[in-house]
Write a structure and sequence with these properties.
single chain, alpha+beta, Aminopeptidase, globular, binds coenzyme A
Length: 161
């Protein structure tokens, strides 16, 4: 298992992974832009990309824009691994706090975030599209504190790429 920076050639794979798990994926162009503008990483197993994570970092704050694990590889701890890697990476750039938005109905993602000390700090009403109507976004944040980093796997040491 290896985490590396997302490259332009990975955009189509990222788009395909997300398209299989959500009705409203990012566009291919959004992925291509993220490769240039954001801190984006892919998780590989046996040379195959099985997930990715994307942060937008501004000074000492970061926003988790997206995290997706290939449907076939979910439920094996990979999402947690990638999020832990990402938080340690962002801290290595001087980030103190991480923010995110998640669909109210996305309970599995919210549980993952809670494991990494994210708490709910607000709600954006009717933020996300649905097939019919709109859905609220839950806004969460975590301080990337020493305590949190201590909680993160000892195995994730080189998160500075
Ligand atoms: C959210 C997501 C990234 C989690 O990745 P994953 O590899 O399946 O998650 P993990 O196996 O690392 O699980 C970590 C924790 O998340 C929670 N979790 C994951 N899947 C869950 C499920 N189906 N039901 C409830 N909790 C779940 C659990 O708390 C789990 O910890 P536990 O196994 O100790 O109980 C993945 O489900 C995904 O890609 N979902 C679609 C895209 C998405 O919603 N992204 C978030 C956008 S805000």
């Amino acid at each position: 298992m290896q985490v590396r920076s997302m490259l332009e050639g990975d955009a189509e794979r990222a788009f395909s992974i997300e398209s299989a798990v959500t009705q409203f994926p990012w566009s291919l162009q959004q992925y291509r832009s993220s490769v240039v503008a954001d801190d984006s990483f892919v998780l590989e197993q046996a040379g195959k990309i099985v997930g990715f994570i994307i942060f937008k970092r501004v000074l000492d704050e970061t926003n988790l824009l997206n995290i997706v694990i290939d449907k076939q590889y979910q439920g094996q701890g990979l999402g947690r691994y990638l999020l832990e890697f990402g938080l340690v990476n962002q801290r290595s750039h001087g980030v103190k706090n991480c923010f995110l938005e998640v669909r109210r109905s996305n309970v599995s993602a919210q549980k993952l975030y809670q494991l990494l000390n994210f708490i709910i700090i607000g709600v954006r009403k009717n933020y996300y599209p649905l097939a019919q109507g709109k859905e609220d976004a839950i806004v969460m944040s975590t301080e990337i504190s020493n305590k949190l980093v201590e909680k993160i796997y000892d195995g994730i040491i080189d998160a500075s790429c």
